[in-house]
Amino acid sequence: MTSGARRLTSPDGVTHTFDSGSFALELLLSGGPPPWDRYEAWHAPEDVAGWIAGSHLALELPIAKEQVKVGPAELKRLKEFRAVLWRIIPVLADGKPMPGVVAEHGLSPTGNELDIINQAVGPLPRTRLNPTGVKQWQTPITGTQILGAAARELVDLIGTDQVKRLRMCEGADCYLMFHDTSRPGNRRWCSMQRCGNRHKVGTYRTRHHTP
Ligand SMILES: [Zn+2]
Questions:
Q1: List of domains in the chain
Q2: Closest to 154 measured CA to CA, from 119, 184, 185
Q3: pLDDT, tens digit, 9 for 90 and up, residues 155-203
Q4: Three-state DSSP class for residue 206
Q5: Cα(108) to centroid of ligand 1, in Å?
Q6: pLDDT tens for each residue of 72-81
Q7: Is pLDDT above 60 for 109?
Q8: Which three-class secondary structure state does DSSP give residue 142?
Q9: How far apart are CA 143 and CA 71, in angstroms?
Q10: Which residues have CB under 8 Å from 108's CB, separation 6+?
């Protein structure tokens, strides 16, 4: 498995690895409001700890789930933030601007989404030097810090030119969204194993069945 990739099983039973290229966008893989609630991974606050241990946040420095402490109120805020991601990321990935589209879709025209994001930009997980001078996490890593890390990254992603690098997989019925960090910026698929391959097979069939 490459760094930052998660192993997913699609509805058609294909197992593949997917790298969202971003910790903030990775949160979308933990579930969401209906219809995404069927993928819910965060039923209780302690579920977040195990999930974070396998996330982009743990890439630079591994996180053990015992090092994470999330309270019920923090879980609620994380889920609220995630619901905002579900409302705005598909719109932005489609190349549309946020405020106008928010109004057009009948979503909150009051800037509520922006408030939730901005208020989430809080303290970040902290590192420290242990007695032998080696970098480690200052524990516990709290739900508020996890939210802060995701929100800060989101602001960098959608509030800058990087927003043009937001993508939704081009596969039919695939809603996986990612930050295209490839140098040429031409990533089209969630993974080559799944949608990239389905596309190749589809192209092959079309070529060989069209007179
Ligand atoms: Zn896909």
A1: 5-209 (1.10.3300.10)
A2: 119
A3: 999 999 999 999 999 998 899 999 999 999 999 999 988 899 888 887 7
A4: helix
A5: 29
A6: 999 999 999 9
A7: no
A8: strand
A9: 7
A10: 102
Helix or strand run (H / E) with residue 69:
strand 68-69
In contact, 106 and 143? CB cutoff 8 Å: no
CA of 110 relative to ligand 1 center, distance in Å:
33
CA of 203 from ligand 1 middle (Å) equals 16
Q: Report the separation in Å between the CA atom of 166 and the middle of ligand 1, taken as the mean of its atom positions.
A: 14
For β-strands 15-19 and 135-137, DSSP reports them as unpaired
**Alpha helices per DSSP H over 66-131:** 72-93, 98-104, 112-120
Given this model, what pLDDT does residue 154 score? 97
CB 39 within 8 A of CB 27: no
pTM, rounded to two decimals: 0.88
Contact residues for 211 (Cβ-Cβ < 8 A; gap 6+):
none
Helix (H, G, I), strand (E, B) or coil at 137: strand
Q: Which two tokens stand for residue 152?
A: 């800060």
Residues 63, 135 contacting (CB under 8 angstroms) = no
Calpha distance 16→79 (Å, rounded): 25
